[in-house]
């Protein structure tokens, strides 16, 4: 079994969740893209969100190198967009990835995107099992695995939304 399967499951779940948020509320992502110089109407953002839901869901249920590469490319694209926003000091309050929660561009966001892309690339090289295949390991192991994936998704979401603000407060206190 590939050691990246857990992080890949978290990345796939987060991709599906973020896609659902973009499909449900595309305006924040459209605004962020506009701030980055990309003019995308909300229907395009909504369609992209639905595509993320499909890719993230497929990544959870299949052991496919092709799907893993698509997940990796998605996260690399997110990382590049966030890096460009940081370098150019773009006035983006939220990328819209997590609904109404502020998720401004940050190094934390880039790090999570890069880690997700690396996990997906590791799975692309050696697909092995689908993340959901691990739910057939016995009740205790299945529950533990599912709980850890959900905690990982929540932790990644909190890291993108809260950690940059906490670090900014700490930085202000140090000065």
Structure explained in plain terms:
The chain is mainly α and 175 residues long. It has one domain. It contains seven helices and no strands. Helix 1 packs across helix 2. The model has no long low-confidence stretch (mean pLDDT 87).
What overall form do the CA principal axes indicate?
globular
Rg calc: 16 Å
Uncertain runs: none
User: What's the end-to-end separation, in Å?
Assistant: 47 Å
- DSSP, total strands: 0
Q: Averaged pLDDT, please?
A: 87
Count of individual domains: 1
Helix content: over 70%
Q: H/E series, N to C? A: HHHHHHH
The largest pleated sheet is described as: none
Topology readout:
Blueprint: H1 5-24, H2 26-35, H3 42-61, H4 65-87, H5 107-125, H6 139-161, H7 163-174
Helix pairs in contact: 1-2, 1-3, 1-5, 1-6, 2-3, 3-4, 4-5
Q: In summary, what is this structure?
A:
With 175 residues, the chain is mainly alpha-helical. Helix content is 73%, strand content 0%. It has seven helices and no strands.
Supply database-style keywords.
175 residues, mainly alpha, 7 helices, globular
């Amino acid at each position: 079994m590939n050691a990246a399967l857990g992080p890949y499951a978290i990345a796939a779940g987060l991709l599906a969740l973020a896609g659902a948020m973009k499909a449900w509320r595309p305006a924040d992502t459209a605004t962020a893209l506009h701030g980055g110089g990309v003019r995308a109407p909300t229907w395009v953002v909504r369609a992209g969100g639905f595509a993320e839901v499909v890719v993230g869901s497929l990544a959870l249920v299949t052991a496919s190198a092709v799907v893993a590469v698509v997940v990796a490319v998605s996260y690399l694209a997110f990382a590049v967009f966030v890096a460009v926003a940081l370098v150019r000091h773009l006035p983006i309050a939220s990328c819209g990835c997590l609904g109404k929660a502020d998720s401004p561009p940050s190094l934390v966001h880039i790090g999570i995107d890069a880690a997700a892309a690396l996990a997906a690339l590791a799975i692309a090289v050696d697909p092995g099992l689908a993340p959901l295949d691990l739910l057939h390991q016995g009740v205790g192991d299945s529950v533990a695995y599912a709980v850890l994936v959900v905690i990982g998704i929540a932790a990644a979401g909190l890291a993108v939304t809260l950690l940059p603000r906490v670090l900014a407060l700490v930085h202000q206190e140090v000065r």
